[in-house]
Amino acid sequence: MTEGRDLCDRSASELAELLRRGEASSVEVTRACLARMDALEPRLNAYLTRTDDLALEQAARADERIASGDAPAVAGIPLALKDVLSTRGVRTTCGSRILETYVPPFDCTPWARLSEAGSVLLGKTNCDEFAMGSSNENSAFGPVRNPWDLDRVPGGSSGGSAAAVAAGEAVWALGTDTGGSVRQPAALCGVVGLKPTYGLVSRYGLIAFASSLDTVGTFTRSVRDAAVLLQAIAGKDPMDATSLPDPVPDYLAALTGEVRGLRVGVITEAFGEGVQPAVAAGVRAAVDRLADLGADVGEVSLPHTDYALSAYYLIAPSEASSNLARYDGVRYGLRVEGRDSVEMMARTRGAGFGPEVKRRIMLGTYALSAGYYEAYYGQAQKVRTLIIRDYDAAFARYDVLVSPTSPTTAFRLGEKVDDPLAMYLSDVFTIPANLAGVPAISVPVGLDETGLPIGLQLTAPVLREDLLLRVADALERELALDLRCPAIAGQGQSGA
Amino acid sequence: MPVEIDIEHVARLARLELTAEEKERLRAQLGLILEHAAKVGEVATAEVPPTAWAIPRVNVLRPDEPTPSLPVEEVLANAPEVEDDRFKVPKIVEVE
Predict the structure, then answer these.
(1) Measured CA distances, A462 to A198, A317, A419, B55 (Å)
(2) What CATH code is carried by the domain that includes residue B36?
(3) What domains lie within chain A, and their CATH numbers?
(4) Could you say which of A105, A333, A365 has the minimum Cβ distance to residue B71?
(5) Which range marks the domain in which residue B4 is found?
(6) Where does A9-87 have alpha helices with state H?
(7) How close is the nearest chain A Cα to the Cα of B31, in Å?
(8) β-strand A453-459 against A400-404: which pairing, if any?
(9) Less CB within 10 Å around the terminal CB: N or C of chain A?
């Protein structure tokens, strides 16, 4: 199906097979990605830091390992990392002026595991500042553009990772998902985005935003690739006390293509007002295909969906205001001098943080302050309980739940920057999974009338990534879409 | 109705210097966001217990064994100002 494509546009699983058979080398694949970056980066701005030399060095080493016949599945496949994931010796900015020159002295665990397994790092991807945003317009280093339409946003906050994978600037990528920051950009860029169960993937070295919600997730070109990449990073890490001790199953074994008798619940609330008709129609059509395959489809209500957004915009900023207290001009990052320590801190933070980060720090500080804590933060935590109960009731009747990933396809740059509430609504269907800790995946199911990708979200119970991957893979096979974004249509066999 | 906020007070708590224009904009935006967020009070009744972590874990322990620390020079390399093996900060208390 992908014959004739550049190496950098193929799936990781396909490339792994080519590498194993000696029909391509990791150095060739890496060069193809770097050439694509040379061609498209001036327009996309998906990367904040490129690591070309490191990538070619790692690729050469991976080729030796593959030739010796002893190479893990991810060896030699070029990867991009969202710039909130710490990389030893490689600048990590969080898309913020306050960390513009920060060089971590250690690796985050997901990259440490991938690096150990022979992965190749192409660079660090652009994102909303401290992962706060839904359009990537909050990066201090300029917005990322959507490779499907350069006047539109790639989604956020992991917009750079999503755009890079869609445009062949990386074969796959890691991002982070606190309220939808993997799934929403995956939907808007037409790639697969997986947010695992809270605690399945270690967050050691992930620069914290909202600690009770943050997860590390994957961007890939196929569901199979998502299974392979998740396998490589999942599992208990002694460095992260919130990482789960449960054994990690074989995710590839879940890809049976069989959904007969599986109970699929379509979330009623996710097809109401504010959902673009083409998105609702695209998701419904995909659900019909699941029914054709023998799935048992029904409707299910999550009655507190409406309140999830309100709860999230109290809980996440509260945790952020506390986590971001560490940027005080003392141990790392920017310092703006003042008469004393307190003035130095206030000036440093005033100069170093952008508008959305300031908004959330203020919101969280207010919600946690004396006299308001119970009315805002305390009440939001109760809503969280109600959201979890909604899921418990739904999963008593259904194996997986379906909704659109985002209410609309990619919107225009600048369209929502002056209206924070409208921007926040972009995550209305992704936020509940973070509040409940359950896993969810976004898969492309087609294009709208203007040729922009539509994402369908599947949600499963805690630690049932196997179910998510099984249904998503079956749907992907059944739809057999051959998505190719316009930004790469003009690219020849460059570097391949 | 939009919520009224004492922006000066909150900015002081957050150790965040804001321009007059930023304060004005935040006063308006936070008022609207909090008005929307206050919806949580409609359903969060007394009998619903709060959830802090979706997947709670209690007493996560590890063996208390010494392991190597990060190299001091690498850690200090990111600091805005260093003296000997220490982070240097501006004056905190007045000394006669």
Answers:
(1) 8, 24, 34, 9
(2) 1.10.20.60
(3) 7-302+388-489 (3.90.1300.10), 305-385 (no CATH)
(4) A105
(5) 1-44
(6) 12-20, 26-44, 52-67
(7) 10
(8) antiparallel
(9) N
